[in-house]
Amino acid sequence: MLTDPHFYICETRIILNTEETKVKKMGSQQIANHRGDAEIYHGEALCKQKSQELLGEMSLPKGLLPLDDATEVGYNRTTGFVWVKQKRKKEHRFRSIGRSVSYDTEVTAFVEDRRMRRLTGVKSKEFLIWVTISDIYIDDPSSGKITFANPTGISRSFPVSAFDLDEGKSGDHKN
Questions:
Q1: Please, which residues bridge with residue 100 across strands?
Q2: Which domains does the chain possess?
């Protein structure tokens, strides 16, 4: 049985699914912990508006979170914790950089000027593998670059313009 390649594939899937479940539980737990003093908004149109306003406040591109089916957006200004809940997972392709990004039903982060850290619920497709994104930041606004990092510290930078609102609208969507 241990020499059967299917065993290893199944074992890997179980481990990955277990890790995803842990992350989802952590996100839900964090939402519960930060909900008390938070501004909370409901309804698709209002959630979209508030998430774009928040990205603008943080000097991040407004097309960074192209979430159309958001049901709840929350922001605790004291702790900097923000969350977005949506009806279903969404996959979006940013055409100008040729990258697909997956947004889970819950996306959470701690935000500050030009940065989202401890991000959960966002993955980028690199070759054939979905890679968790844990940090998004603009170090030097004059560079015109935005950087995405995974939990191991490996990062990749792209033009900020690739995530402008117009690009976000023209990307490809999958639910």
A1: 93
A2: 5-174 (2.30.240)
pLDDT per residue as tens digits for the range 153-167: 999 999 999 999 875
Helical spans, DSSP H, in the chain: 5-34, 44-57, 165-170
Q: Which two tokens stand for residue 44?
A: 């698709």
Write the pLDDT tens digit of every residue in 29-83: 888 888 888 999 999 999 999 999 999 999 999 999 998 899 999 999 999 999 9
Which residue's structure tokens are 């969350």?
83
Q: What is the DSSP string of 94-138?
A: EGGGTEEEEEEEEEEEEEETTEEEEEEEEEEEETTEEEE--EEE-
| Tokens 């990955």, located at residue | 16
CA distance 135 to 120: 9
Of 147, 85, 87, 162, nearest to 117 by C-alpha is 147
C-alpha span between 113 and 138 (Å, rounded): 9
Q: Which helix (H) or strand (E) holds 76?
A: strand 70-76
